[in-house]
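Re: Re: C-alpha cell formats

Sure, here are both.
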Amino acid sequence: MILGPHGYYNAKPLVDFANKHQTKIITLKTARKTGVKSTVIQALKTLSTKVDRIYVTVDLDVLDISFAPGIPASTPGGMTTEELFDSLLEIGKHSKIKHIDFVCLDPSKDTPVDETVKIGAYAWMQFVTGCVLGKK
C-alpha cells in the first residue's frame, strides 16, 4: 500500500509497477478528504487483516517543500508536518508494526537552521512515542 503520492512527479513506470502488482495507491488528495490520520488508521486496519507484521517506509518526499527543503524530491502540495507527525503517532501505537525506516532526508540540501533534519528527528520521536503509548 502506498499512501501520500501527490503532484506531477510520480514516474509512470513506478505507477505501472504498483498497478501490475496490485499495490493500492491512496493519493494525498484522497487521504485528505477523510483526514490523513483517519486514512492511516483505516489502512493499518485493512493491512492487519491480511498480514502478521507490517513494515513501514516513511519517504520524506511526501512532505511539502515549504516544510522540508532538505528533501531530494520534495514538491509543492505535499503533506504537512502535522499530518506526518499525527500519522506516525498512530503507526507507532499499532501492534503489527514491527519495522520502520525513514528515507530521503538530505542534510546537505537543508537550510542553515536544519529544519528538515529536525523534522526527521521529530518524526522518529513521534513514532517511538506511539510505540510507548501502544503498550499501555
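Second one below.
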Amino acid sequence: MANYVLVPGLWLGAWAWDQVAERLRAAGHRVRAVTLTGVAERAAELSPEVGVETHVADILAAMDGWEEVVLVGHSGANVPVTAVADRHPERIARIVYVDTASLPSGVAVIDFNDEVTQKAWRAQVGDGYALDVPAYEQGAGRFGGLTEEDWERVRERATPHPWGAVTQPIERPQDIPATPKTMVASTMPVALIHELIASGNPAFAPLGTPEWTFVELPTGHWPMFSRPDDLAALL
C-alpha cells in the first residue's frame, strides 16, 4: 500500500483526479487529491497574494499525517510539487510528473511557453490576478483524446488560475535531492526527450541524472481524463 498525493495542473481542481483516485483506492492505496487555493471549490479564496508558496503549503497540508508519499503533479503543478520535493525529500518516496517535469531554478510556468502564448496570457490578465481558462476546442492539438462528456466536465468545472502561481519561479538547491523521479510522457515521445537531454537543452539537460525514469503514455495532455485506467496502472 502506498500513499498518493495528486496535484492537478492549471485551471483544474481535485475533481480532475476522480477516476484515477478511484482506481488507486480500489487497488488498496490511500489517496488524497488536492484542490489548490484559488481554484475550483476554493475559487473564492483567489486573491493577488495567492502564488507558488501558497500552493506549496496546500500540498504539504495534504501530506499531513503521512510519513512518506508518492507525490504526483500534472502540468503546471510542476513548480510547487518540485518545491515540496526539494525541501522535504525525506517525505517523498517518488515524485511523478504527468506530462511535465521539474523546471530549472528561477524558471516559472509561463517561461516554458512560447512567446505568443506568454504575450496572450499577459494581455488577458492585465492588472488582474487570474488567468482565464482557455477556449479549448474539442479534439484540438495536444488536448485530444477526450470524449464529449470529458469536455463538458472541463467546460463546467475548470476555473481561472492564480496568476502568481503561473509567473513565480522557485529557487532550487544547488544539490538536487536524488529522490526517484518519473515523467509520464503523453504528448512528447520519450525518444525525443532523451534527444533533448543529450543536446544540452537547458530545460531538459537536468533530467539526465540517474534518478530519472521516463514512461510513455501516448494521448492528450490530460491523461487522467483520456486514459485513467492506464495512468492509474502506471502510478
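The chain is about 35% helix and 15% strand. The two ends are 12 Å apart (CA to CA).
- S.
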